[in-house]
4-oxalocrotonate tautomerase domain-containing protein
Amino acid sequence: MRKLRIIVEFVMPANRTQLERQVCERLVIALKKELGDLYGEDMIAEIRNVEANSSFIGKI
């Protein structure tokens, strides 16, 4: 079966506040849960949170 590859990109500056960072992390977690419920956990290849001007990638 084909896996989904989902990239979540938040176009915000790398120097965003801690609250903005937490909101982005929670959005990625919620998206993973919803897609997992819809397609099954084994169908989700990866969800990445990419920050503008940053090399940080949070894999889930």
